[in-house]
Specification:
The chain is 25% helix and 28% strand. The protein is an alpha+beta fold and 251 residues long. The chain has two domains: 206 residues, CNF1/YfiH-like putative cysteine hydrolases, CATH 3.60.140.10; 35 residues, no CATH class. The structure holds zinc ion (ZN). Zinc ion binds next to loops.
Amino acid sequence: MIENKKYIQFEELNKISEIIHLFTKRPFNFSKITSTEEKIKEEYQEIEDIFHYKFTTIKKPIQTHTNVVKVVNENNIGNDFQDVDGLITNMKGVALVTSLADCQGILLYDPKNKVIGNIHSGWKGTLNKIVGNAVSIMKQEFHCNPQDIEAFICPSILKCCFEVDKDVVEMFQENFDDVNEFIFEGEIKEGKQKYFIDTIGINKRYLQSLGLKKEHITSSDICTKCNASQYHSYRADHEKSGRNIALICIK
Ligand SMILES: [Zn+2]
């Protein structure tokens, strides 16, 4: 990872001159609840200044932990994208944004067809295979070959901190084959067995099963909860939590 004071970047993606991308750190805060619209506007401005580039449009879907992915094109660019958790486009100047605090942001890039994606894959999105929907759309609508698609998993809650009850474990066991290698027994708390799930491992293996090459799947391996002084973390800050953003744009 390339570390900056207020954001990080993936080395491989940063090498590509036509792509702008970043994942923000504190004190950036893109939460409409714990920050203000005014402040958020200034922060987008600051990002434009960092890259010396003006986005034609900034598209952030209204995320509700669905597995719905939409293509942004000339006809729907004015839409709100309500109940959408992933966006894909080949339009230049359109910044695709997801807002995140522990959930995985997965950036997708096909260098052959010049298509990008930005996917919000929290545990529910991961469970419901949102990144698979994204890859399907890239194949169908842009004729992408999964072998060319590169995936970058942003800082998120890792298996060290993603503690769940048995009900969540059972949901993953139902939706994925052989998922037990990604599930670890934790402590017994108040008489209940706790578990830890490696949702990064699950998405990595899933992406490979969709045809992405192993060497095209990169994870930051930064845990937002362990590093809550640098990143907003819902599990660390609860309702007071701010939001990091993942952003990707074709210049
Ligand atoms: Zn952790």
